[in-house]
Design a protein that fits this description.
alpha/beta
Length: about 350
């Protein structure tokens, strides 16, 4: 027991030291960027404003809402990835208490802060007392900031997934996150990575949310990813092929419940991927579809909801949203990849995860 305790203490100490070193380096890089930015300014009225300065300040500025915006970095087979953790303020934890963790994976062209602002998941975290992890793709690994969900043939996607799991593990060690109550949600490329994480590490997640993503197993390379986004390479799969397409771990372990959200006016990722994702997941879990129902709240976009069930338990919920493009449904107004007129995907994602946590 003493040896285990000492190893745990050493791991925590090393992780904390690494995090502090990362934060020092981040501040140093920011200062350097601000200094260099003075050479490339643009005139706006009475003062010159640097694009570099604005980007640096925005990156460090916490998203709206009360709470701690904690910076960190995780190392793994896919290299290093930054992250931010939102921790609600004024938490009064009982001795030994741990909090649920929601992992939020942004889409291409976004940052973790952007995703936090669009989804407003932090407001729900404050209300319902849970932590929110926002990993961030490094532009050196992908110029557009997309998560690599598609390079399954080369192994790059698996390496990146392992690095993201290192971030989850780090947060569980440092910030009292409950390893038994972890859910993952993503938009677009983030949705693809969320599904990849769940199929590679099915025992680690209690719920998965795919918003406007490509069906699992639809791509094995960058070339096939583009075709998959257009709705190709997603033929109906027999159950025997699902495990191979989604990963060996998924074939051996029960997959966590899946919530699929997709707009029928999405011109970036074909809406056909929503039905394909639900079908693939249902086939892997043995679930069958129930009758679809139409739901609409107020003047928000209506949606068609289909549950796939096995022995009375829902394995997949498919929500096909009318009039929604490639955007987070019900997100903050006047932000890219966000449609405030859609049903509230943030509330739906948390409610879906909370139901699974209650069964843990």
């Amino acid at each position: 027991m003493a040896r285990r305790s000492s190893i745990s203490s050493l791991t925590s100490s090393l992780t904390s030291s690494f995090t502090r070193a990362y934060q020092r380096n981040l501040r140093a890089l920011t200062k350097a960027a601000l200094k260099a930015g003075t050479k490339a300014t643009i005139k706006t009225g009475k003062r010159a404003v640097s694009e570099v300065q604005r980007a640096a300040v925005k990156q460090l500025k916490p998203p709206p809402g009360k709470g701690d915006w904690l910076a960190g970095m995780a190392l793994g087979p896919g290299g290093a990835r930054r992250y931010h953790l939102f921790r609600p303020s004024d938490l009064d934890l009982a001795p030994g208490e741990k909090l649920p963790l929601m992992v939020m994976l942004h889409g291409c062209g976004q940052t973790g802060r952007d995703f936090a602002a669009i989804t407003r998941m932090n407001a729900l975290a404050t209300r319902h007392r849970f932590l929110v992890l926002y990993p961030e793709q490094d532009r050196l690994h992908h110029p557009q900031g997309c998560w690599n969900w598609y390079e399954t043939r080369s192994g790059k996607s698996a390496a990146e997934a392992a690095t993201l799991m290192a971030a989850v593990d780090q947060v569980c060690v440092l910030y009292a996150a409950d390893r038994a109550r972890v859910a993952v949600a993503g938009l677009s490329a983030g949705a693809g990575m969320a599904a990849l994480l769940a199929t590679h590490y099915p025992a680690r997640f209690k719920a998965v949310v795919m918003h406007s993503g490509v069906a699992p197993g639809a791509a094995k390379s960058s070339a096939t990813a583009l075709a998959a986004m257009r709705g190709r390479h997603v033929p109906p799969m027999p159950v025997t092929a699902v495990g191979k397409a989604m990963g060996a771990a998924a074939a051996m372990t029960t997959l966590p419940p899946l919530l699929v959200l997709h707009g029928d006016r999405d011109v970036v990722v074909s809406p056909s991927n929503a039905g394909s994702a639900a079908a693939v997941w249902a086939a892997a879990t043995g679930a069958v579809p129930a009758a679809s129902r139409r739901l609409q709240r107020g003047r928000r976009h209506p949606m068609r909801v289909t549950d796939f069930k096995l022995r009375g338990k829902t394995s997949v919920t498919l929500c096909e949203i009318a009039g929604l493009g490639h955007a987070w449904s019900g997100g903050a107004a006047r932000l890219a990849f966000s449609d405030p007129a859609g049903p509230d995907a943030t509330r739906m994602a948390w409610a879906f995860a909370a139901r699974q946590f209650a069964r843990a």
